């Protein structure tokens, strides 16, 4: 019989894997640096947070859970900050965002 904790671990892990895959697909399929960075920062952060949440529940009440929670908070703050710094640097370098006209099939 599965406990509530086991079900939460599986749900968080599956959610983390799902958002990790969404981030990977976004990086591969999106047309420019700005949209790729957005996909990577949002989806990857959520996937990491969900996966680390599953790890924290699986470890139980121990010193390891505190380390996992600190890592979770660190990722939650630094991933979006790094994505913002990358896109700001790209904007300052004059890298233009992709437009529909760039493909020649726009309206």
Provide the gyration radius in Å: 18 Å
Overall mean pLDDT? 86
What fraction strand?
A: under 5%
- Form type: elongated
- Helices and strands, in order, run as HHH
Summarize the biggest pleated sheet.
Answer: none
N-to-C terminal Cα separation, in Å? 57 Å
Oligomer: single chain
The tally of beta strands, per DSSP, is: 0
| Low-pLDDT segments | none
Structural class: mainly alpha
- Helical segment count: 3
**Helical amount:** over 70%
Q: How many domains in all? A: 1
What does this structure look like?
The chain has 107 residues and is mainly α. It has one domain (4-96). 78% of the residues lie in helices and 0% in strands. The protein contains three helices and no strands. Helix 1 packs antiparallel against helix 2 (33-59) and helix 2 (33-59) packs antiparallel against helix 3 (63-92). The radius of gyration is 18 Å and the shape is elongated. The mean pLDDT is 86.
Name the features.
single chain; 107 residues; mainly alpha
Outline the secondary-structure elements.
Elements: H1 4-29, H2 33-59, H3 63-92
Helix pairs in contact: 1-2, 2-3
Can you summarize this structure?
The protein has one domain. Helix content is 78%, strand content 0%.
């Amino acid at each position: 019989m599965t406990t509530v904790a086991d079900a939460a671990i599986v749900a968080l892990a599956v959610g983390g894997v799902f958002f990790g895959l969404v981030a990977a697909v976004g990086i591969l399929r999106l047309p420019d640096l700005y949209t790729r960075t957005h996909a990577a920062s949002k989806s990857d952060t959520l996937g990491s947070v969900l996966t680390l949440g599953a790890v924290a529940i699986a470890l139980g009440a121990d010193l390891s859970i505190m380390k996992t929670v600190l890592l979770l908070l660190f990722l939650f703050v630094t991933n979006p900050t790094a994505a913002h710094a990358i896109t700001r640097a790209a904007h300052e370098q004059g890298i233009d965002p992709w437009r529909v006209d760039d493909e020649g099939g726009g309206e």
